[in-house]
Amino acid sequence: MKRIKYSYLLCFLMAIMLFPFLQPVQTAAEDTSFADITPVATVSTVEADEGFLEPITDWFGSIGENVEGAFKGIEETVTEIVSYIGDLVETVDEAISTFSSGNTSSDEVKKLQNKVNQADDILDDLGLKSNEHTVYRVLREDEDPDKGIFAKAPEREHITIAGHVNNGGKRTFKGSKYISTTKSFDVALENATKDIMDDGKSQDLRIVQIDLNKVTEKYYDLTDPAIQDKYLVNSKGEPWEKVRRYANKSQELLVEKSIPANAITLIGRPSEFMK
Q: Do 176 and 153 touch, CB atoms closer than 8 A?
């Protein structure tokens, strides 16, 4: 009911405000011939309308800007909530998994140490040494290490380091100017044998070792706290904990744009060297 009253009141006020602008046109037209009525009335009325409608147009424009700003704010808030829920669910899932498995922290440490020892043994058998300047990568089938390794979408400069890490494990991700590698051979071995994009489905992909001393492009060690504070942050510059946990877990190191062939040593498929 109140909306109806306000509408009538607004129309009434507009009519009163328009009356002075339209009235002189009608008065002048009484003493002119019929042929002169249309142009005189039209020009005067348009000018009057323009003068009156300008503040009204600006007012509606400001409303549109405010509404657009409000929707943008709502969208950002919803995005943050979804991200928070994702982080929470991920943390809860990890807790439930640990609790339900009945493993103690000591058991987990032993299990991890066994995997590391296994990885070291494999590298020793292959005659390969691992150090602070060595990283690993699981190759896609369309990548040829003899020609070098190249970023999937080097033209997508707008994709941040945090954005690459957050979306890199999704099939819908179109790529970025960064190339993912890991400091851990154990992580590479895990990713080569289990498809993280398909619920851990078994696979057998090639692994390469990369010598960072021969990499000519810039690279980022995402396990470094200083690098995390600078790059693994959300849109507000706050720590993006979900992305940091993933970077630490995967021991991720990103290389920009390309890795030259002379920096790459092909290790092979797990089925070939784990016999």
A: yes
Torsion angle of the four alpha carbons 99, 104, 107, 109, in this order, in degrees rounded to the nearest 10: 100
**Integer-rounded Cα radius of gyration of the chain:** 33
* Paired tokens of 251: 């021991």
CA distances (Å), origin 137, targets 109, 231, 248: 25, 21, 16
| Dihedral, 67, 72, 73, 76 alpha carbons, nearest 10 | 160
- 219 has which bridge partners? 255
Helix (H, G, I), strand (E, B) or coil at 143: coil
pTM of the predicted structure, to 2 decimals: 0.59
Q: Rounded CA gap, 166 and 23, in Å? A: 66
Which tokens in the block code for residue 232? 């693994």
d(CA 275, CA 268): 12
Q: What is the pLDDT along the chain (275 residues), one digit of tens a residue?
A: 444 455 555 666 665 665 555 544 444 444 444 444 444 444 444 344 444 444 555 555 555 555 555 555 555 555 555 455 555 444 444 444 434 444 444 554 455 555 555 666 666 666 677 788 999 999 999 999 999 999 999 999 999 999 999 998 888 999 999 999 999 999 999 999 998 777 778 999 999 999 999 999 999 999 999 999 999 999 899 999 999 999 999 999 999 999 999 999 999 999 998 86
Contacts of 24 (CB under 8 A, 6+ apart): 44
CATH class of the region 129-273: alpha beta
